[in-house]
Amino acid sequence: MDISIPELGDVDEVRLVRWLVGVGQTVQAGQELAEVEADKAVFVIEAPAAGVVREIISAQGESARPGRVIGRLEVQ
Asked: What is the pLDDT of residues 38-67, one digit of tens each?
């Protein structure tokens, strides 16, 4: 399952501030995975389902548009 940047209103681009989890880590649905910054505000991306983080595609500090896949989760 993809971990994507959510739509955040009129925001065209965000910066990935930091990952709160690592590859191989088991997470629960709703658990905070990463922080992104847009227009001086920080938003949290939550796990869409329970599973294991299998891949981190975007590194901290990278910019991304809403909808972009930044990681992958193996659903359990």
From this structure: 988 999 999 999 999 999 999 999 999 999
Domain ranges (residues) in the chain: 2-75
Provide the whole-model pTM: 0.90
| Second-level CATH architecture of 2-75 | Beta Barrel (2.40)
Q: What is the DSSP string of 7-74?
A: P-TT---EEEEEESS-TT-EE-TT-EEEEEEETTEEEEEE-SSSEEEEEE-SPTT-EE-TT-EEEEEE
Q: What is the arithmetic mean of pLDDT over 21-30?
A: 98
